[in-house]
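Complex 368.
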Amino acid sequence: MANVQIEELRKKLDEINDNLLDLINERAEIVQQIGRVKKTQGMNRFDPVRERKMLDMISEKNEGPFETSTLQHIFKEIFKASLELQEDDHRKALLVSRKRQPENTVFDINGETIGRSGTQTFIAGPCAVESYEQVAEVAKAVKKQGLKLLRGGAFKPRTSPYDFQGLGEEGLKILKKVADEYDLAVISEIVNPADIEKAVDYIDVIQIGARNMQNFELLKAAGSVDKPVLLKRGLSATIQEFINAAEYIVSRGNNRVILCERGIRTYEKATRNTLDITSVPILKQETHLPVFVDVTHSTGRRDLLLPAAKAGLAIGADGIMVEVHPDPAVALSDSAQQLDINQFNKFMDEIKNSGLYNKTDKTSPSTI
Ligand code: PEP
Ligand code: MN
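Predicted structure with phosphoenolpyruvate bound:
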């Protein structure tokens, strides 16, 4: 008997749900009509006075059993959803978002395709440019491994003002000379918006470092030139902040942006930073930009470079960045985690044998 009664009542609930559904959608259609009229008249879509009136009406007419505050909360949600419906979804989506562009952003740097699914790129080179000989020795090894992108810092944003700050423009000149000699593309960090214009004469990819991820003037300057940009995730940046930083660059007209996960600061002390490995698939889902993993700065540990690189490739990264120095023990920066040439060769061989890297067949022997 009780079961029959419940069945009856549930039938009534189903009918009411049906009616509510129809009414909410009918209401949404009217809201859309109002939105169109407001648009033609250039009026603001959100009208707080009108919303206050509607909430007051609920308060006047409510006879329970729901509390007025509960009903106002429910209606507020309906108002909010309706307002969102009025806004053009497409216009609201960020330029870097997958909603805006479902296909991957793919571009070419020195014959290397970046961002195509199934193609992965390695960037290797010293933490800092120290001398022509030092960069050339690493470039030779990079070339021998069949890689096309060489890194090297000329402007070093160091935690202490007393640490080596980089060779500046002189460092960029060294990079350019080596790059030309070994037919490699070079990537180097620029820290000052005023240096961007000058830097494009020397380098092929502008790096924006973790400490500058929210240097908005620098992002705007990098967005205004015709050069690919590798943007590092900030030390304490959320994924959303990272995406917004990339939007700064793309919104200025430069859509050749690579996102680079380089670890974030957590309470964990076992590694220099905590490699947020799942940020890779999240960034791939949320944006159409290529995503790289910097294994050197994320781990700060030589013994973790290989497993971290494998993890990056396995989880879908488009590329890996790793630091290499002819003699890390005497490197002017990051001496604890740079690979020497032998270790680098072993590292690349292990990567190529791992089955995670697609380019085992494309290594070209050095011509130099
Ligand atoms: C770098 O790549 O040289 C560097 C300083 O890294 P980050 O900005 O990620 O600390
Ligand atoms: Mn470094």
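The pocket of phosphoenolpyruvate (ligand 1) is lined by residues 127, 153, 189, 209-211, 232, 262, 294, 297 (CB under 6 Å).
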